[in-house]
Write a structure and sequence with these properties.
Blueprint: E1 7-12, H1 16-19, E2 30-34, E3 40-44, H2 48-51, H3 56-70, E4 75-80, E5 84-90, E6 97-102, H4 111-120, H5 127-132, H6 144-155, H7 172-181, E7 185-187, H8 192-205
Antiparallel strand pairs: 1-3, 1-4, 2-3, 2-7, 4-5, 5-6
């Protein structure tokens, strides 16, 4: 990877129909597609990490956290730039957990983070964790991109199946072109009225829903 290969993907553990409304809260143009059984993938259409001055990891971590807080499913942000690559897993009100590799694949995270990652996704505590452990060890044959691809390979056991061509480590422009070519759905923010409606719907469908006074309550 190099300085022109910045990119990101968001994996949501939910069907596209469940993701479509909450994603409006991000107020960002995104492409939505199925990514396996009970999984969806979001591909950024823009590059807010270049326009807003914040690095790609911070932007994607914020997106994942915003989606996961109001939803009943976890969100996994995958990101990469010329210097590093990594992931952030957000799940409900849990503190997000993540891991980072340097561009040459050198691990720069904590082993405990990978164990927490596996536990929150409900991965097999023996087989899947054993498959994840090599990603936390030095390997001169694996760069940062290979580490992300290896992570996705482990997640295939949990049902992840990224559309052909949506490979972590590819430049954002290429990912966007591939997603469009494969018929990904464009999800765009259409104004504050729809954003507020989406936020209320997300809250009512979340763990807070039963505490609201009546169906479609607007008191909150």
């Amino acid at each position: 990877m190099n300085a022109t290969s910045e990119g990101a993907l968001l994996l949501c553990r939910a069907e596209p129909t469940a993701v479509r409304t909450p994603v409006h809260l991000l107020r960002e143009p995104l492409l939505l597609a199925p990514a396996g059984e009970e999984w969806s993938v979001l591909v950024p259409e823009g590059k807010p990490w270049l326009d807003g001055g914040e690095p790609v990891d911070r932007v994607l971590s914020g997106w994942a956290t915003a989606l996961a807080v109001g939803a009943n499913w976890p969100v996994l942000a995958l990101w990469w730039d010329g210097d590093r690559a990594g992931f952030t897993l957000a799940s409900g009100f849990h503190r997000p957990v993540g891991y980072v590799w340097l561009a040459d694949g050198t691990p720069a995270g904590e082993d405990e983070a990978m164990r927490t990652f596996a536990a929150r996704l409900g991965l097999d505590p023996v087989l899947d964790l054993q498959a994840l452990e090599p990603l936390t060890r030095p390997d001169p044959e694996s760069d940062a991109r290979a580490r992300l691809v290896g992570l996705i390979a482990v997640l295939t056991r949990a049902g992840v199946a990224l559309p052909t061509g949506l490979t972590p480590g590819e430049p954002a422009d290429r990912l966007r072109s591939v997603a469009r070519a494969q018929g990904a759905e464009a999800v765009e923010w259409s104004g504050w009225r729809d954003a507020v409606r989406a936020e209320l719907d997300v809250v009512e469908d979340s763990a807070l829903g039963p505490w609201l006074r009546g169906p479609k309550a607007r008191l909150l």
